[in-house]
Amino acid sequence: MHVKSVNLETVCGITSKLPENEKPEIAFAGKSNVGKSSLINGLMNRKSYARTSSQPGKTQTINFYNINDLLYFVDLPGYGYAKVSEELKAKWGKMIEKYLKTSKQLKLVFLLIDIRHEPSANDKIMYDWIVHQGYEPVIIATKLDKINRSQKDKQLKLIRSGLGAKSDTRILPFSALSKQGLEEIWACMEEALGF
Ligand code: GTP
Ligand code: MG
């Protein structure tokens, strides 16, 4: 799909009411710093429309990006960010949960995992929770440029087994630097949306 227009239409904090959008939504979940906002920029073909940072905990709200007046990318706050209070962490968790539970337009959930690391306990909880909500998450293994080509298959296997993902769960490697994997991610979205 050719992205002609992008607009950060709604920003929801812990006390905000979630929007009742009419158009399909695609959500990006994953731990803090894994590369959610960078992937969204890659998909939007914008360098830094979605704010990114080398410091974890950049996105602290649920951000709805209107794409071509056709669909929304939903950038979720990262979990597992150590520097905030337990209370705030719990509130963010609840906010993410509430969104995944109540959105009527959510068509696809991407769960992002850093290709270099074995999934954390929080990643596993998130995966199980998404499945529990009735979604079939597609895993995106981020930061592909940070490993050697020879390590790729081993790391993808580690992610699958670490999450306890079903054998037919898709795991797509991606690099925000080289944009490798972008086409496959688009194809996956277009399939889920029936475009
Ligand atoms: P939060 O908003 O804190 O939850 O983080 P996020 O998941 O949105 O991560 P973000 O996109 O802000 O990226 C975090 C850091 O990782 C930034 O310094 C990015 O430049 C870097 N990064 C993201 N994706 C890639 C990638 O594919 N390759 C490399 N080398 N760096 C990446
Ligand atoms: Mg972010």
From TrEMBL:
GO biological process: division septum assembly
Gene3D superfamilies, per database record: P-loop containing nucleotide triphosphate hydrolases
Keywords assigned by UniProt, alphabetized: Cell cycle, Cell division, GTP-binding, Magnesium, Metal-binding, Nucleotide-binding, Septation
Cofactor annotation: Mg(2+)
Record flagged with keyword Magnesium: yes
Cellular-component GO terms for this entry: cytosol
Matching InterPro entries: G_ENGB_dom, GTP-bd, GTP-bd_ribosome_bio_YsxC, P-loop_NTPase
GO MF annotation terms: GTP binding; metal ion binding
EngB-type G domain ranges (all copies): 22-195
Keyword Cell cycle assigned: yes
Family: Belongs to the TRAFAC class TrmE-Era-EngA-EngB-Septin-like GTPase superfamily. EngB GTPase family.
UniProt function note: Necessary for normal cell division and for the maintenance of normal septation.
This protein's name: Probable GTP-binding protein EngB
Organism this protein belongs to: Anaerocolumna jejuensis DSM 15929
